[in-house]
Specification:
Blueprint: E1 6-7, H1 17-28, H2 45-62, E2 68-73, H3 76-88, E3 94-99, H4 102-111, E4 116-122, E5 143-149, E6 151-152, E7 157-158, E8 168-172, E9 187-193, E10 204-209, H5 226-231, H6 241-257, H7 259-279, E11 285-286, E12 297-301, H8 305-317, E13 320-321, E14 332-335, H9 342-359
Helix pairs in contact: 1-6, 2-6, 3-4, 6-7, 7-9
The protein binds 4'-deoxy-4'-aminopyridoxal-5'-phosphate (PMP).
Residues 11, 76-78, 103, 149, 153, 172, 174-175, 193 line the site of 4'-deoxy-4'-aminopyridoxal-5'-phosphate.
């Protein structure tokens, strides 16, 4: 097997090596049962124990109170763009959205299919290089909820603190869940696709306040009602067993490391190394404005697109993969989620200094 490289991919993204090694074993033979985890019934005792442990660890790590349900769903984070308004809006109902990037915009488009949408803020005219402060927008008092994206994967922006608002909050945390501590109690729903900070693609974790389960219109198809999944422990139909299992392994790894608070400290240190490298140079330019900078996705530009292409190519040759920015903003992006090692960030910083010396 080739040596592992530093994988800066925005998602699916790098996972802890010990998690991969364990999963590789369990795929062939789980719990010494003579069959692999992915061959087992989702109703088997062994798998139910996996799912229960995964949920319990998530509750512990995120301090999720008992009046919230944890659901393991399919269809990616993108299905939630529609499922949220489908369940919570309807005739005469409205919601407020903050447009901080492509993923927020897609959620706005879906919400418009089910109710009135107020877009209270947009940073589109500045290529989404910042997120708003609370004082930058007002939330329509008639709104059912305020929807926002905590971390904007493509632009490298992140809400430094959760918005303070009288309305219930709903957040897409696909690219920063479990990366920092926060109080979940002002939230009605928090959700995240697993493939950045939690595990492989295939499962979307939806944490929903219990009282919301009874708000869905009667005529929703069964699979699109949150209550269906809540009432059946996410086993109304076959769940994404393998993805749930790997998320469980990642959560155990995170607990061993000291939990979310410990992770947050490491994430801040890793991101600071890169932002210091950007700020101490005239060669590199950060895309996100200070004050809105993400600790998960660090976006930057070089003086020309040609130099950016060369930078990405030379970095790849040195075992640093996935540094090309999203096609909608160009430039470079280093995604350094929870499982990305600090040594990889140090290697990138060293390469950035070298590259600047040679090319400026
Ligand atoms: N929200 C955010 C913040 C994302 O970064 C992404 C994917 N990169 C999505 C939603 C969409 O996720 P999925 O592909 O699971 O639908």
């Amino acid at each position: 097997m080739p040596e592992r490289i530093y994988n800066f991919s925005a998602g699916p993204s790098t996972l802890p090596e010990e998690v991969l090694a364990q999963a590789a074993k369990d795929i062939v033979n789980f719990n010494n049962k003579g069959m692999g985890l992915i061959e087992m019934s989702h109703r088997s005792k062994d798998f139910i124990a996996v799912a229960d442990e995964c949920e319990a660890n998530l509750r512990e790590l995120m301090k999720i109170p008992a009046n919230y349900k944890v659901l393991f769903l399919q269809g990616g984070a993108s299905t939630q763009f529609a499922m949220i308004p489908m369940n919570l809006l309807g005739e005469g109902k409205s919601a407020t959205y903050l447009n901080t990037g492509v993923w927020a915009k897609k959620a706005i488009k879906e919400a418009k299919l089910f109710g009135k949408v107020q877009v209270a803020y947009t940073s589109e005219e500045s290529t989404f290089n910042h997120v708003p402060k609370d004082s930058d927008y007002t939330v329509d008092p008639a709104s059912e909820y305020l929807y926002f994206v905590t971390n904007n994967t493509i632009y490298g922006t992140q809400f430094p603190a959760m918005p303070k608002c009288e309305k219930m909050l709903i957040a897409d945390m696909s690219s920063d869940i479990l990366s920092r501590e926060f109080d979940i109690t002002p939230f009605g729903i928090v959700y995240a696709g697993a493939q950045k900070n939690m595990g492989p693609a295939g499962v979307t974790v939806v944490i929903i306040r219990e009282d919301l389960l009874d708000r869905s219109p009667e005529n929703l198809p069964t699979m699109f009602k949150y209550k269906t999944h809540a009432d059946n422990g996410s086993m109304f139909n076959t769940p994404p067993c393998f993805s749930i299992y790997v998320v469980g392994l990642v959560l155990k790894w995170l607990k061993k490391l000291g939990g979310v608070a410990a992770m947050e400290k490491i994430n801040k240190e890793k991101a600071a190394l890169l932002y210091n490298a950007i700020d101490s140079s005239d060669f590199y330019r950060g895309h996100a404005q200070p004050g809105s900078r993400s600790n998960m996705n660090i976006t930057f530009n070089l003086p020309t697109p040609e130099l950016e292409a060369q930078f990405i190519k030379e970095a790849a040759a040195l075992g640093m993969d996935g540094l090309k920015g999203h096609r909608s903003v160009g430039g470079c992006r280093a995604s350094i989620y929870n499982a990305f090692p600090k040594a990889g960030v140090e290697a990138l910083v060293a390469f950035m200094k070298e590259f600047e010396k040679k090319n400026s």
